[in-house]
Amino acid sequence: MVRLFDLSQGIHTLLEAEKEASKIVSQAREYRVKRLKDARTEAAKDIAELQARKNAELAEIQKQHTDQSALEAKIQQETNQKLEAVRQQFEKNKAEAVSKLVEAVSTVEA
């Protein structure tokens, strides 16, 4: 009879150990799930920060490019205006310059 009691007590001890092991495994799984959720949340946060930073860099590059294009267009316009002014001055003074050249060439000084 002593043996039956010891056997029953041993089975009870094993069942308690199994319950304790089950609790430990369950806690480990919960901890792992929590860590995975935390890691996903942290990764999403990092991705959002990186995306915001890259969007800001892109906006800055686009702004610089737009500013440069506007500057190039302004310089081209000013150059065209100056060339037109030179052409107008040439057309205005062409006849007078030609007549002075002809007069200088045809005048003979002794």
TrEMBL record:
One of its GO terms (molecular function) is proton-transporting ATPase activity, rotational mechanism. V-ATPase is a heteromultimeric enzyme made up of two complexes: the ATP-hydrolytic V1 complex and the proton translocation V0 complex. The keyword Coiled coil applies. It holds the Pfam family V-ATPase_G. GO terms for cellular component: vacuolar proton-transporting V-type ATPase, V1 domain. Keywords: Coiled coil, Hydrogen ion transport, Ion transport, Transport. It comes from Linderina pennispora. Belongs to the V-ATPase G subunit family. This is V-type proton ATPase subunit G. Residues 33-100 form a coiled coil. InterPro entries: V-ATPase_G. Subunit of the V1 complex of vacuolar(H+)-ATPase (V-ATPase), a multisubunit enzyme composed of a peripheral complex (V1) that hydrolyzes ATP and a membrane integral complex (V0) that translocates protons. V-ATPase is responsible for acidifying and maintaining the pH of intracellular compartments and in some cell types, is targeted to the plasma membrane, where it is responsible for acidifying the extracellular environment. Transmembrane segments: none annotated.
